[in-house]
Each structure stands twice: as structure tokens, then as C-alpha cells.
Specification:
By secondary structure, this protein is mainly beta. Helices cover 15% and strands 41% of the residues. The longest helix has 11 residues, at 197-207.
Length: 237
């Protein structure tokens, strides 16, 4: 698969919705992830990322303006031992809790479906990173309706062992703007990953649509030492 320029990919799509990137830095030393959220409504745009003990959560920037916390307030990132979970919804907690009970990533997600936001039926996209003894692998899950038909749930899992240096994969919820919003299609997109967390963060943020972008999280994890470097960017300040 040809690697795409993720910045051009984002610039060409005014509304990819929520997106997850997971991969490895060009020098092979860092496990890399990024997660962003976007919004079209005032309710969706009224959010920020805030750090937690084991990851991040979304919060209302102005609590007086929140009209419906359903599907917009959740923990996108949580860390369970040597695993980092990144998702676009409260399935983060499902994965965390069931994997803590020795179930697998796939088994945990078997208990969930796409989001209940008819007529969009937004896909649930999830990623997991596993680092142990200097070894690194990651996986993605996409749970979606069948071309907008809520009677059929489609589940896809993609696993990447010994990932290539300087590359990763990118999934997002929507192919673009629309009514209803068209769900992501195909397998995760192969993209290039740099070494520098600040340039990666800045370039991702600048590439997201100015009107629709809300928040961005980027984390680089040292594969040997496990040390973590994190950036959070919020449009609301």
C-alpha cells in the first residue's frame, strides 16, 4: 500500500470527524499515536481535552452551553499496563474494563455496536498499542453499519506486528461532510510518521479544517524505556 501524506489527506477533507493515527517514528524509537475531534454543532464544538491519571477525557469548555453530553463526553485515551487504548467514544472504558478481566481487544468490542446517532450511525473506531520488552505492535477496530442500514453491524480488525519505521495507519469516522454523514470506507490508510512530536502536532493541527477542528492529542512513547511525551491542543482556550 502506498503511504499517503496525512497532512494533505486532512486538508482535502473538511470533515473527517474524529480520527486516530497509530504508528512508529522514522528512527524506530517511538510508538506514536494521535487523536483528534471535530464538530459542526455548538454542542460538539464546546469541548476540550483535559489530562487524567491514565489518559485524557473530553470536557465541556463552557458547561452552561452543553445541551447533550451523550456521545461527546468520554475518555478517548486510557492506559492499561503496557497497553494504550485510543477510541472515539466510551468504548475506551469497555476495552479497558474487559481487557483488565483478561478478554481480548476483539472480544471487548464484540459487546459494542456503532453509535446510536441515527441517521449517521457513526462508526466506532478504536486502536490499541502494546509495548513490552522493547517490542511494539498495534491494532485497529472499525464497527459500522452496512451502508447506513442499522440492522447490519460490520466489524473489522486490523493488526500490525513489528510495524515499519516511519509509517503508521490512519482511520476516521467520516468520508466527508454530508447529511447523513458518510461513514469511513476501506481499511486504515498508510501514512508517514516523523520523528519530532512538535512538528507532527503542529502540522496535524494546521491541516485540520479551521472551522470544524476542536481538539488534538499526540503522544510519543519510547519503545525501550516506556517514557511518554504528550501534546494537547484545544481550539477553545
Amino acid at each position: 500500500m502506498k503511504a499517503l501524506d496525512i497532512y494533505k489527506e486532512l486538508q482535502s477533507n473538511p470533515y473527517p470527524g474524529r480520527g486516530i493515527v497509530i504508528g512508529k517514528s522514522e528512527d524506530g524509537k517511538k510508538a506514536v499515536t494521535a487523536y483528534f475531534i471535530m464538530g459542526r454543532s455548538e454542542n460538539s464544538r464546546n469541548r476540550i481535552f483535559t489530562p487524567t491519571e491514565d489518559g485524557i477525557k473530553t470536557e465541556a469548555y463552557d458547561p452552561s452551553k452543553i445541551t447533550d453530553p451523550h456521545l461527546i463526553i468520554y475518555s478517548p485515551v486510557r492506559v492499561l499496563g503496557n497497553k494504550t487504548i485510543v477510541t472515539n467514544g466510551d468504548q475506551t472504558d469497555t476495552i479497558y474494563e474487559l481487557m483488565d478481566k483478561q478478554q481480548t481487544f476483539e472480544q471487548a468490542l464484540r459487546t459494542r455496536k456503532y453509535e446510536d446517532d441515527a441517521p449517521n450511525y457513526t462508526p466506532r473506531i478504536s486502536g490499541i498499542m502494546h509495548i513490552e520488552n522493547g517490542e511494539y505492535n498495534y491494532a485497529f477496530s472499525i464497527i459500522k453499519s452496512a451502508d447506513g442500514d442499522p440492522d447490519c453491524t460490520e466489524r473489522f480488525t486490523y493488526s500490525y506486528n513489528d510495524p515499519l519505521n516511519g509509517f503508521g495507519h490512519f482511520i476516521h469516522t467520516y468520508m466527508g461532510d454530508g447529511n447523513p454523514l458518510p461513514s469511513f470506507e476501506g481499511e486504515p490508510k498508510k501514512v508517514k510518521i516523523p520523528n519530532d512530536i512538535d512538528s507532527f502536532t503542529d502540522s496535524l493541527w494546521e491541516s485540520l479544517n479551521q472551522d470544524n477542528k476542536v481538539s488534538l492529542f499526540v503522544r510519543f512513547i519510547d519503545i525501550e524505556s516506556g517514557s511518554v511525551d504528550t501534546r494537547i491542543v484545544n481550539k477553545n482556550k
